[in-house]
Structures
1.
Amino acid sequence: DPRVRMSAASALGSFTGDATAAAALTACIAQDKHEYVAGTAVSALGQTRAAGARDTVMKAVGRSSHNEFIAISALNGLASLRDAAAIPHATDRAKEGVNHYVRASAMGTLGSLWDWSDRRDQMAIVDTLLAHARSDMHQTRLQAFTGLSRTGDPRAGARLAAAAQSDPLGLVKSKARFMRHIDWGDSTMFD
């Protein structure tokens, strides 16, 4: 049953640094025919942060599947790896023309990698997310705000504050106001 295999793969992700768990997950990624099982295994492999996991997870970012579940799971796995080497892969998947759900995951991954990046990479992450935060598509702005909220960059806070005041959509204003309140302690949330 795929649901059982997905649960087992997910549980193996909690064995941080365990080579046996990583080997079982790698085999599952390569051999399981059910895309959702393979996707769950990719994400779990990233959570193990085991030696050699990065290459397998990065390779899975380009793997096509139903609703791009494997690519999205791989981006989540890259975030879990806490490895700045994943930034170019996530940046590439955040570009225009990429599946909307993959882009959303990529922007979240970029934000998650903030704490594990050097200053140069942090600047690149924020620059990428700020560019998307000015998109004409409100879904893209929302995704960018999610990534920006995970960074500690003052430019991110300033962009969220600006969106909370001036975005044309109430949904975007509300989310920006909420994220600014949660992540920067903005007391004007209910103004």
2.
Amino acid sequence: LHSFPTRRSSDLVTQPLSNGGATFNTATLSPGIHSLSAVYNGDSKFGTSTGTATETVAKGSTTTALTASPSPGTSGQPVTLRAVVTPAGATGTVTFQEGNTTLGSSALNNGVATIAFTFPTGSHALTASYSGDVNYNPSSGAATEVVNPNNPLTNISPVTLLAAFVGNQYSVTFTATGGVPPLTWSMPSVS
């Protein structure tokens, strides 16, 4: 029989020989350097022997995707920055930045990290940087958010109401340009 212990005694397994060899497959080794050994127990004709090997397990790669919502935004309104890190099993934190300025950070929850931030008017080049963990390497993603000015209402039409007569009903549709939704309408009472 061949035994394949790793550096943890709980990983010891015993495999039968087949054509002079034995194979053991595992996906449970954590990233790092592992010292492995295979011990042949011998039989009635052959004595015992041991072989060793070193296995280096690399960290897994990740990707980070960054989105901003709403896009474009409006001055004075918060923008939600959302980073999605794959694979979803990654843990750790995501740091959101504009250039060298840190906007905030958030822990991953099922592969997703979010923050809300209020930007001034203009174009903003943003990045989301995943820190990595014991199993996965860091990664980053980028996005551009454009924030438009919060303009007041610039026009309401029509500006002239139709003639009204007692006992008659009519409707008028008003169209406004500028401003930030939701808009509130009011009609003063007239006589």
